[in-house]
Write a structure and sequence with these properties.
12 helices; FAD/NAD(P)-binding domain; single chain; globular; Polyamine Oxidase, Chain A, domain 2; alpha+beta; 5-stranded parallel beta sheet
Length: 451
């Protein structure tokens, strides 16, 4: 392969472009928006920058740390202690240590023991491959018990997955818990944040790609794909026609399905089986902190958000000229009323919910509110989801795919995007450098396992 067109300028596409260019391939990246980055996007706040959607890294994110080292910015990743909490029955509970679990009143001592043992089993012993057709909620009711399930697992799954909560496989929970437990040492968790935000990564990566001769074309949404004799010949975009020896698509599979409909109807139908969640993050700039907790899970019904993430309880407020930054996060389906709300209505709804938890918060203490949303923020991982994950090698010749479904059964992150990009390059037969893998479960389904 001498030339490659990468469709999508998010972290997966840019990481794949970097690896392919390292292998001596002439690369072009096509991005439909007017700037590269996708979910790496940031905005100005307090003399620095902040992600539209909350972000942190785990200590075991070796793929991301490898890329930061390649770009000469590894020292910008800072790991700090992080705390978690649960809001249940109108009360905030710390949820970090065995002692915190014992103080969690919605569960009795026996329930607490079952919760601890089942959580440890899922994080350390259970195999996700054997639990793809096991509904997580059914398993929790059966093994963790009713009290633990109804006070923690059920409300957390329902606020994240809404109407799909009953269909989420235990495999996804195994991946999620394994990720969290592997970031802990002696029961304490440390999470990483890139000093200066993901803008530092994006800028360094774009600089390096330009040095390597990679063509970075923005404002170039793909309008159609030309196919002849079962082979992709070219792409028609708003910026003109592009040809290459191979084409790697990293865009959401819902968008790819629209492009495939006229040229590969059966493939388009397969891609349409995968559903996406939207996400909204309301970002508050406050004059004071709300609490000392970094991540507060909301386990009570009736709130418009599933988590309160106090970013400046991980990164000091001094980095933002003393402003305290808070995310109110929520995933939602297309049928949810949030999908039809205006920005102003969303802001009003979120602030009303926050003041139910923190009634002493005054309007004067809220310095600024920003609302950001994405229609394709996460994939709905339902039962036997691996059967829906499309192959990295598409049914059309010279066409390859590296998209969010390939992250399953792990969780969407920059690290796992790098993993998927590396696996896609391997599928394309490129001689790329060895990208380390530690705890990531991504890139194993229909991409193969490079270990």
């Amino acid at each position: 392969m001498k030339s490659l067109v990468v469709v999508g300028g998010g972290i997966t596409g840019l990481a794949a472009a970097y690896l392919a260019a390292r292998a001596g391939v002439r690369v072009t990246v096509l991005e439909g928006a007017d700037a590269m980055g996708g979910l790496l996007g940031t905005f100005a706040v307090g003399g620095s920058r902040l992600e539209y959607f909350y972000h942190h890294a785990f200590t075991h994110d070796m793929e991301l740390r490898w890329l930061l080292g390649e770009l000469g910015i590894a020292d910008r990743m800072q790991f700090r202690p992080a705390t978690m909490g649960v809001y249940r029955a109108g009360q905030n509970y710390r949820f970090n240590t065995p002692a915190d679990l014992l103080r969690f009143r919605p569960m009795g001592l026996g329930d607490q023991a079952r919760f601890a043992l089942t959580s440890l089993y899922l994080a350390r012993v259970a195999k996700w491959q054997a639990n793809e057709n096991v509904p997580a909620l059914d398993w929790f009711y059966r093994h963790a018990g009713r009290a633990a399930t109804e006070s923690l697992w059920a409300p957390l799954l329902r606020v994240k997955f809404g109407p799909f909560a009953e269909k989420i496989p235990l495999a996804w929970m195994i991946g999620r818990l394994r990720q969290r437990v592997n970031s802990r040492q002696r029961g304490r968790e440390k999470l990483g944040y890139l000093d200066g935000s993901l803008a530092v990564l994006l800028e360094a990566l774009l600089r390096e790609l330009e040095k390597m001769g990679v063509r970075l074309q923005t404002s170039a949404p793909v309008r159609s794909v030309t196919v002849a004799a079962g082979e992709v010949q070219s792409l028609q975009t708003a910026a003109g026609e592009f040809t290459a020896d191979a084409f790697l698509f990293t865009i959401p599979t819902t968008h790819l399905a629209e492009l495939m409909q006229p040229v590969a109807e059966t493939y388009a139908a397969e891609l349409r089986q995968i559903e996406y969640f939207s996400a909204v993050c309301t970002v508050l700039e406050l004059s004071r902190p709300l609490s000392s907790t970094y991540w507060l899970n909301i386990a009570d019904p009736g709130f418009p958000f599933g988590g309160i993430i106090e970013h400046t309880n991980l990164v000091p407020a001094a980095a933002y000229q003393g402003r305290h930054l808070v995310y109110l996060s929520r995933y939602y389906a297309a049928s949810d009323e949030l999908a039809r709300m205006s920005t102003a209505a969303t802001q009003e709804l979120m602030l009303a919910g926050l003041k139910k938890i923190y009634p002493d918060l005054t309007d004067a203490e809220i310095l600024k509110v920003s609302v950001f949303s994405s229609r394709t923020a996460a994939v709905v991982c339902d039962l036997d989801f691996s059967k829906k994950v499309p192959a990295g090698r598409a049914p059309l010749q010279r066409m390859f795919l590296a998209a969010m479904p390939h992250v399953y059964p792990d969780e969407r992150s920059c690290n796992n995007s790098v993993r998927v990009a590396a696996e896609a390059c391997r599928v394309m037969g490129l001689a790329i450098p060895a990208v380390p893998r530690c705890a990531s479960l991504s890139g194993q389904i229909n991409m193969g396992d490079s270990r």
